[in-house]
From TrEMBL:
One of its GO terms (biological process) is protein catabolic process. InterPro entries: Acyl_CoA_acyltransferase (IPR016181), Leu/Phe-tRNA_Trfase (IPR004616), Leu/Phe-tRNA_Trfase_C (IPR042203), Leu/Phe-tRNA_Trfase_N (IPR042221). This is Leucyl/phenylalanyl-tRNA--protein transferase. It is an enzyme of class 2 (transferase). NCBIfam families: aat.
Length: 209
């Protein structure tokens, strides 16, 4: 892989079960956790407390209208003082990947202001969830709900969430062995799903290499 992270590096990494994160000094490291955390798509159900928010349609949900804005929202230093693993190099590479039609954002707006969302990478029938943020309560939860609905509607088979933590547990994340993850990944990569309408033709060609 090149010294500078590229969209080609990202595609290669995801297809082989690895993903990058930046250290506090910006140094990139590649990870392949064992066990790996995934969220079963078909068994997901929104929390009872979220259903009134969904019914009220509090947020306007959009897809791919401000990808970089979502990434920068996710890159903000957390309230607990912990730094971010999303460096400028990572933002640049994923934004390029978004232009090629592989990286996507699901965004929540309130009064036409971006108040939450998530982003990830879609290849074949796999969606690799990267990060989410919110500035208004429930915004990221609603964005995640719409992500799941889109993955179901478009017949995705794998939702990767990388590491287990309390945040992803609330969405139903479970851990599986890396070998099992790689088996599921190979099956998912053979699918031809389309996350967003109007994906550039060259992205589809690139996907099939």
């Amino acid at each position: 892989m090149t010294n500078k992270l590229t969209s080609e590096d990202l595609i290669y990494g995801y297809m082989n079960g690895i993903f990058p994160m930046a250290d506090s000094d910006g140094t990139l490291y590649w990870y392949s956790p064992d066990p790996r955390a995934v969220i079963p798509i078909e068994t997901y159900k929104p929390a009872k407390s979220l259903r009134p928010v969904l019914n009220r349609k509090t947020f306007d949900i959009r897809v791919n209208t401000d990808f970089e804005g979502v990434m920068r929202g996710c890159a903000r230093t957390r309230s607990d003082g912990e730094g971010t693993w999303i460096s400028e190099e990572i933002i640049e590479a994923y934004t390029d990947l978004h232009r090629y039609g592989f990286a996507h954002s699901v965004e929540a707006y309130l009064d036409d202001e971006l108040v939450g969302g998530l982003y990830g990478v879609a290849i074949g029938g796999a969606f690799f969830g990267e990060s989410m943020f919110y500035s208004v309560p429930n915004a990221s939860k609603v964005a995640f709900h719409h992500l799941i609905e889109r993955l179901k509607d478009r017949h995705y088979s794998l939702l990767d969430t990388q590491f287990i933590n309390d945040n992803v547990r609330r969405y139903g994340a479970v851990e599986i062995a890396r070998a099992e993850y790689m088996f599921r990944l190979r099956i998912a990569l053979d699918l031809r799903c389309q996350f967003a309408d109007g994906v550039p033709e060259y992205a589809i060609v690139f996907q099939e290499k």
